[in-house]
Structure formats: structure tokens, C-alpha cells
Amino acid sequence: MSPDQEPTPAADRPRAGAGRPLRAHARRNRESLVAAARAAFTAADDTVPLEGIARDAGVGIGTLYRHFPTREALVEAVYAAELDDVTGSAPASLLKELPPEQALRAWMERYAAFVATKRAMLNTLHSGWASGRLATPATRERITAAIGALLAEGVRAGSLRGDVEPDDVTAMLLGVFLSTAADDEPERTGRLLDLVVDALRPPGS
Predict the structure, then answer these.
(1) Nearest to residue 172, comparing CAs of 152, 143, 149?
(2) Measured distance CA(10)–CA(100) in Å, rounded
(3) pLDDT per residue over 105-137, tens digit each?
(4) DSSP H helices in the chain
């Protein structure tokens, strides 16, 4: 199947992992493909050749198409993996390693990386969501829930304010990423994220 073929609607398309579990070798191939695609989309854009992604994953193009029959299917898998990481495993693991306010700041960096990956895939995502070929994820709700969990830990520790709505923090972060989207200045993004964290500290701290 070529990259230009019309994809199966999302509701009808079988997903890898649905029904019979993937065998270990197939699961490793799928994970390698998703990891290679994440790196490729972040470094370039969603027009990167699928052959290059397969090569970077150490598999043939036929293996890629067995797991992801279309470019949209691959983009959807990368987006889902990124969203699961930034809203699921990242907050919990950071809170195990760092005080809440530091965990929140480190999580903001992870969220920034997610936004960069999403931006690289935006054309494919938007066309897929608009056509119904890709399911629309509850991205903002999940991001806001992750922020809420980090804020709650900071409130309990006394290092973050308790009068802040998590969705307001989401809006602030989106403003930072939108205003710096055209810049190639990660230092500026970092300074703005530092200001956001400072705004979340209790007065006088």
C-alpha cells in the first residue's frame, strides 16, 4: 500500500494490540517504529519519508505498513504515545524524584517537547480529525488533569498556591508555546516557564 492510498476510517480500522496481543517481536518492532517516528517528526515535519522511519527503526517498509497502513495511522500512534507519556507516566515519575514545584517545572519541559512533536504532525492530525479518520483525543482535559495533580502536591507541600485553577495554568503554558512557536530560542521559552512557576508560588515564598 502506498502512502497516498485512502485510509480506513478510524472507527473501522483495526488497531495494533486490539484482540490478540502482539507477539514480543512484533511489539518491539511497533515500539521501535513509534520511537523512530517521534524523533523524525520532532526533528523535521510530517512529510518525512516513511522509508526513512522504517530504516531508523531497523525494519523494512513492509513491516511499517503491517503495523501502520497509512501515514495517519502512524501519526495517530505517535501522538497517542506522547500524550500518554506527558499526562500519565511523566507527572508520577517526576514527583517521585523531585519536590512538587521542581517536578512541575520539569514537567513543563516535557510538555514543551510534546507540543513540539504535535506541531510537527499538525497537518496530518488536523486533516484526520476534520475528516473523522482519526479520533479526536481529549488533549486539553488530560493536560489540565496532569497539571492539577502536580499543583495539588505542591499545595500539600506548601510550595505552590492553592488558589490557582489548573486550566488557567494550561492557558498560560499554551500562551508561552504559541508566542515562541516561531522562535528558535529554547532559552526564551525556559525563561517564560520560570516566570509561570514563580507566579504559582505562594506570596512571600
Answers:
(1) 143
(2) 38
(3) 999 999 998 988 888 888 888 888 888 877 778
(4) 24-43, 50-57, 61-67, 71-84, 90-97, 100-120, 122-131, 139-157, 166-179, 186-199
Torsion of CA 57, 63, 69, 75, to 10 degrees: -10
What's the DSSP call for residue 1?
-
> Residues 4, 55, 114, 90: is their CA dihedral positive or negative?
positive
Q: What nine digits make up the cell of 120?
A: 510537527
Please give the pLDDT value at position 171.
96
C-alpha cell at 142: 488530560
Tell me if 184 sits within 8 A of 137, measured CB to CB.
Answer: no
User: Could you count the other beta carbons within 10 Å of the beta carbon of residue 183?
Assistant: 10
Distance CA 130, CA 69 (A): 19
pLDDT of residue 44: 73
Question: What is the spatial distance between Cα 133 and Cα 144, in angstroms, rounded to a whole number?
Answer: 26
pTM of the model: 0.79
Please report the domains of the chain, with CATH numbers, ordered by start residue.
Answer: 22-69 (1.10.10), 76-200 (1.10.357.10)
For 57-100, the pLDDT digits (tens) are: 999 999 999 999 999 999 999 999 999 999 988 899 999 999 99
